[in-house]
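Saturday, quiet lab. Running sequence design on the structure tokens for the scaffold JK sent over.
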């Protein structure tokens, strides 16, 4: 018996029942549905697993860090996490950055890599410490500090310049590195994007050195080359000094004038509220002192301290700044 046109139209528009898909849709359809069901089950199980983890452990899992890399520092700011690692076999520093749009959803993952200037194995962290994280807007985890939160992330735990080197001691070069918002392991180009091109004005950061947040006045990460036996370089981290052998260079006698020039550069640049700061001092150059900063507003500022004419005295110049800049990987 033939169906009427209205009956046939009704049949075409009738929704397909799930039972037909499972039992009347053929073997291929059943396999696809089973695979989809299995995938959804695994996804829901993984999300439930992530949700059961402490926050820091969850972020660490999302960073997907290989097991042969030692965790040496952690920084957290709202939905933003950074994990610094070190691989002793390859002498490689890495910085994993993960940003979450929700507790279980990864918005961004970025990995930076660079050869280290010193062995960071003494700073290796026990991964169990991630479980002891207490929820805060800002947090820092470091070997000798444990977890630091909010205002406790400061310059209080760094050695002062006067504790690092004293007048009369020998040195080749001194430099200080400080960050107020994030971990650093490498240099980046400081650039401005125009309608036609991208113009870069210099670099910020130092390749192969881990910089952790917190600095105040002359309390920051100090690196001294040629201290107590040339050729040697010493990295003064909170509560621990890492050392390495460097190439042999002519050394100078550290003086009270050297100290005052370095401190003056730092103080002058700190007035700009930097998010990242560097200061360098090397006697053999025409301008022994140099400092640069980045600000949260996107400013890049420089300051030079040069010999005054033919005299041995050193004078500070004026700060020069360029605005509306962004960082780019080199």
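Result came back. Writing it out in full:
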């Amino acid at each position: 018996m033939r169906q009427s046109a209205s009956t046939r139209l009704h049949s075409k528009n009738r929704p397909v029942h799930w039972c037909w898909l499972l039992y009347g849709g053929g073997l291929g359809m059943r396999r696809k549905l089973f695979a989809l069901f299995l995938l959804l089950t695994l996804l829901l199980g993984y999300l439930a697993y992530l949700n059961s983890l402490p926050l820091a452990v969850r972020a660490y899992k999302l960073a997907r860090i290989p097991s042969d890399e030692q965790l040496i520092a952690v920084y957290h700011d709202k939905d933003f996490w950074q994990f610094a690692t070190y691989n002793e076999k390859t002498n490689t520093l890495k910085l994993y950055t993960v940003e979450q749009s929700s507790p279980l959803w990864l918005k961004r993952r970025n990995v930076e890599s660079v050869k280290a200037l010193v062995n960071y194995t003494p700073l290796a962290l026990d991964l169990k410490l991630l479980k002891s994280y207490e929820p805060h807007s800002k947090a820092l985890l470091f070997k000798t500090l444990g977890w630091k939160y909010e205002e406790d992330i400061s310059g209080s735990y760094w050695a002062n310049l006067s504790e690092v080197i004293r007048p009369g001691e020998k040195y080749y070069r001194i430099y200080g590195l400080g960050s107020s918002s994030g971990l650093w392991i490498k240099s980046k180009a400081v650039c401005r994007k125009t309608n036609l091109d991208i113009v870069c004005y210099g670099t910020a950061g130092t390749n192969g050195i881990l910089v952790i947040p917190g600095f105040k006045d002359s309390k920051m990460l100090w690196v001294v080359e040629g201290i107590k036996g040339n050729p040697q370089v010493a990295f003064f981290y909170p509560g621990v000094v890492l050392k390495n052998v460097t190439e042999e260079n002519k050394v100078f006698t550290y003086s009270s004038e050297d100290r005052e020039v370095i401190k003056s550069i730092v103080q002058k640049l700190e007035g700009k509220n930097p998010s990242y700061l560097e200061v360098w001092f090397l006697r053999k150059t025409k301008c022994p002192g140099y400092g640069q900063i980045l600000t949260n507003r996107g400013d890049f500022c420089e300051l030079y301290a040069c010999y005054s004419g033919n005299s041995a005295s050193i004078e500070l110049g004026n700060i020069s700044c360029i605005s509306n800049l962004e960082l780019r990987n080199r």
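Notes for JK: The longest helix spans residues 26-52. The radius of gyration is 28 Å. Ask whether to fix the surface positions before the next round.
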